[in-house]
Amino acid sequence: MSNPEAPAPVVVAELVRSGFVEGHHHGSVVALDRDGHVEWTVGSTDQPILPRSSNKPLQALAMVRLGLDLPPELLALVCASHSGEPFHLDGVRRILASAGLDESALQTPPDYPLEDAEWHAVVAAGGERTPLQMNCSGKHAGMLATCVVNGWDIETYLAPDHPLQRAILATVEEVTGEPVAVVAVDGCGAPLLSTSLVGLARAFRTLAVAEDGPEQRIADAIRAHPEWVSGTRRDERALLAAIPGAIGKAGAEACYAVALPDGRAFALKIDDGGARARPVVMAAALERAGIDDDAVRQTGDAPLLGGGARVGEIRAVL
């Protein structure tokens, strides 16, 4: 489903090798000010996109509202696209055990860990793909536990008309301030709900400025345990560690949303799904907003190599 009224693609990053621009990434970015108003945009920010795993904190919010009660690190894991590190896998087992379940209840597709180092370790040890290792298993474990709390069927928890998924849709529409225009199927098999980049930024801002309730619980879990939301070696963890009080979540196809405790919020999408451009553009958006921090800039450093040495970079154009 395409939109013929969408504006022409906009360059948001360029590949610079030996001083020569050899390629481009197109995309869109939105920044909200402290009051939640749109401060600036690049590209198309009011058309529906599929935020992929950037939706996970919003899905987790619905689960907490429905009675899911977990310690903060496990709540962060429900929001995660985890790397598959041992503590992530143990955490998923803990979520399931809290509901009297085990990993056989997961309906995530079998997969290797998302993080290359963990993937290689599994292969080297003779391991195979499993549903537990799939990076969305924390979210699925949270969904299953929420179903148990409410006495809902766990065999059909991924069906769009399941009470859990209907409640998630209502929550996403509430916090984004937009109707869900598209219900697709995410890579993990769960319903995938559309919103615009403006709506996504608005939703993350709602979490970041919350002073109580389930919204604050989600934000505080992400703040306190960023390594549970991604992994110990991921750029998202490094960014959250560099900005006290920030929350954020990346998603497949190069989606990314970040919100600061002062109410400013940012969301972006790289059109071609090029994940290498995602942290580059977010770091540049934060710098444009006045976040002058070397650690933040480092998360957006993407060198291009020639002969094993740095000869260029992926450079944001905002």
Description:
With 318 residues, the protein is of the alpha+beta class. It has one domain (11-316): Beta-lactamase, CATH 3.40.710. The protein contains twelve helices and ten strands. It has helices at 56-65, 72-78, 86-98, 116-124, 137-150, 163-176, 197-209, 213-224, 226-229, 235-242, 278-288, 294-299, and strands at residues 11-17, 20-32, 38-42, 183-185, 191-193, 247-251, 255-259, 265-270, 303-306, 309-316. Strands 1, 2, 3, 6, 7, 8, 9 and 10 form an eight-stranded antiparallel β-sheet that branches. A two-stranded antiparallel sheet has the order 4-5. α2 crosses α3 (86-98). The protein is globular. The model has no long low-confidence stretch (mean pLDDT 96).
In a nutshell, what does this entry contain?
The chain is of the alpha+beta class and 318 residues long.
Q: What is the number of helical segments per DSSP (H or I, 4+ residues)? A: 12
Structural class: alpha+beta
Oligomer: single chain
Biggest sheet: strands, sense, closure?
Answer: 8 strands, antiparallel
User: What is the distance, rounded to the nearest whole angstrom, between the alpha carbons of the first and last residues?
Assistant: 28 Å
What is the domain total for the residues? 1
Overall shape = globular
Q: What is the tally of beta strands? A: 10
Could you tell me the strand content as a percent range?
15-25%
**How large is the radius of gyration?**
19 Å
CATH C-level label: Alpha Beta
Mean residue pLDDT = 96
CATH architecture: 3-Layer(aba) Sandwich
**H/E element sequence:** EEEHHHHHHEEHHHHEEEHHEE
Helical amount among residues, as a percent range?
Answer: 25-40%
CATH topology label:
Beta-lactamase
- Poorly predicted regions are none
